[in-house]
Design goal:
The protein is mainly β. Among the domains are: about 80 residues, Trypsin-like serine proteases (Thrombin, subunit H, Beta Barrel); about 100 residues, Beta Barrel (Thrombin, subunit H), CATH 2.40.10. It is built from three helices and 16 strands. The strands form four sheets. It has a six-stranded antiparallel barrel. A six-stranded antiparallel β-barrel has the order 8-9-10-14-13-12. The structure holds 2-acetamido-2-deoxy-beta-D-glucopyranose (2 copies). One 2-acetamido-2-deoxy-beta-D-glucopyranose binds next to loops.
Length: about 300
């Protein structure tokens, strides 16, 4: 039923066409403005910065387009950053099993992993992927904004996470593998540390939420990112513009009670990102875009989605 409903909405969207007049290179402004609030399948053009990073034709991590030639993702997605010829980035896609006419495959020129990254669930789990050639922006392929370090993502703020990860710790996303979206509130670091210290399971060290990490999700579990979502974006609407607050990094299992999703804060890695991409413009919140909470907050939508590489 859900697929049928999504397909119908998608047709309506395509018929409604695009809105003109927006700067060609503006970040964080999807051109397809309709949203399926209350649903879980994403819509065509809704998250135009979402990419699939693939190896030998298989999706293994998410990522986000931040300029016409750079994709942001997680460092743990790559065991060997020199094997660029094995990787491919798929852009402009809603359904992985049916990429469709808006899909673009891009070759990878270089992978820069943050040198401070030290393995699973540690700090600095961010990587930048440079494409061989710049991509052309379309209604389905647009960059997200990278926030200036002055931007604060307050606890309680409702943000969104997207990905093609698994719908639970065991299952895989059923065909046609439609991009999933989930609204998640930001959880403060002290609260997140408290949650992660509860009910420590044998086999798991109590985890510490480091300064460059950001928690988002639900203490009760049930809705979260999961396997294969790794590297994908956590984005928040600030004023009129979507800013990427975090990169999907880790969690103890997926959607478990007291184990919300943990993301890497982009603002903590501003200097490193700036060093690799000097031309990137960082987005300030700005006076016109007062950091208000979305009035729809606390109507979270959901599904389990995930984080470690799918492969
Ligand atoms: C790549 O995929 C093909 C077909 O799916 C498979 O036969 C081949 O073994 C794979 N190669 C690697 C290196 O995984
Ligand atoms: C990484 O990949 C490169 C290119 O394929 C290869 O030359 C190198 O030996 C690999 N390094 C490791 C540690 O596997």
């Amino acid at each position: 039923m859900r697929q049928v409903l999504a397909a119908v909405l998608l047709l309506l969207l395509l018929r409604s066409g695009t809105r003109g007049g927006e700067a060609l290179n503006a970040c964080g402004r999807p051109r397809m403005l309709n949203r399926m609030v209350g649903g879980q399948n994403a819509l065509e053009g809704e998250w135009p910065w979402q990419v699939s990073i693939q190896r030998n034709g298989s999706h293994f991590c998410g990522g986000s387009l931040i300029t016409d030639r750079w994709v942001l993702t997680a460092a743990h997605c790559f065991s060997n950053t020199s094997e660029t010829s094995l990787y491919q980035v798929l852009l402009g896609v809603l359904q992985l099993a049916r990429p469709g006419p808006h899909a673009v495959y891009a070759r990878v020129k270089r992978v820069e992993s943050n040198p401070k990254y030290q393995g699973m669930a540690s700090s600095a789990d961010v990587a930048l992927v440079e494409l061989e050639a710049p991509v052309t922006f379309t209604n389905y392929i647009l960059p997200v904004c990278v926030p200036d370090p002055s931007v604060v993502f307050e606890s309680g703020m409702k943000c969104w996470v997207t990905g093609w990860g698994t719908p639970s710790e065991q299952d895989s996303l059923p065909k046609p593998r439609t991009l999933q979206k989930l609204a998640v509130p930001i959880i403060s670091t002290p609260k997140c540390n408290l949650l992660y210290s509860k009910d420590a399971e044998s086999g798991f060290q109590p985890r510490t939420i480091k300064d460059d990490m950001l928690c988002a999700g639900f203490a009760e579990g049930k809705r979260d990112a999961c396997k294969g979502d790794s590297g994908g974006p956590l984005v928040c609407l600030v004023g009129q513009v979507w800013l990427q607050a975090g990169v999907i990094s880790w969690g103890e299992g997926c959607a478990r009670r007291n184990r919300p999703g943990v993301y890497i804060r982009l603002t903590s890695h501003h200097d490193w990102i700036h060093r690799i991409i000097p031309e990137l413009q960082f987005q300030r919140a700005g006076p016109g875009s007062a950091q208000k909470r979305d009035p729809r907050t606390r109507q979270p939508l959901g599904r389990n989605s995930a984080r470690y590489p799918a492969a």
